[in-house]
Every structure is written in structure tokens, then in C-alpha cells.
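Table S2 (text version). Query chain:
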Amino acid sequence: MRALVETALGVATVDLEEDEVVELDEDATLELATVETGLPRVVSADRQGASVVAVVDRRPPLMVSGDAGTTWREAGGGLPAGRAVAISPDHPDLVLFAGVSRLFVSTDGGRFWRALATELPEITAVAWDQPQSGSDPEGATA
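Corresponding C-alpha cell output:
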């Protein structure tokens, strides 16, 4: 399971299971679609199906919806201020959250979080690293 993390140094590929940077592309940037939430103070948001997670500029830093934004619940009370979020396209309960320099992973839709030890400078965006076409889909976990 890997994540793409846009930082001040470029885009890092991070192995979330090994908790290490496996590649850094200094010239790359992430181009992510804008997700409309209707919420105030949104910093970043992602949507997969009916699941929507938004980073907001307040405490707690996350708002989560399981019904495409009709209703919301607060989440992430123990997390730092957020910069970016991404929901796995294959597993909507798998969520990646980025603070200024750290990554956090939730496997239950944002209720509980695991901090990664890896620190990266000035995170601005995150995405799940999807296998390229023609690669072995059986080996993909995210």
C-alpha cells in the first residue's frame, strides 16, 4: 500500500506498511480533482462513491460523510491541523490524512488513526498510488 505525497521537495512515494519513502520525484506535482462539500473552511477534500472526507480549518480537523455529504460527523480530534486527505478508491474506509509534515492512516473511515514515523517537509497534497495499467492487479492492496 503506497501513497503519493506532494511536498516542498517534490512528490514522494511512501510505502505505508514499511513506513518509508521509496522514491522522490523532484519535478512531479499531483493534479487532484476539486471536491465540493458545501462546508465552510475546507482545506482539502476527497470523495469515493458516497464517502466524503474533508479537512477543515478548525478543531477537530475532519468532517466525514457516508451519504455523499447529506450528513456529516466530526472526526480526528487527536490529529494536528490538516493539509490534505485521500480516500482509497478500492477501500472507502481506508483514509490517508496529512498534517504539515506527518501522515496518518485510518482503516475504519476516520474513527481511529495510526501515525507514520516518516516526516516530510511541507506536505501540500496526498493521493493513493494506483497500479499502472498492465501491472498485476493481484499485487495491489490500495
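Notes on Table S2: The CA atoms of residues 86 and 96 lie 5 Å apart. Residues 133-142 have pLDDT under 50 and may be disordered.
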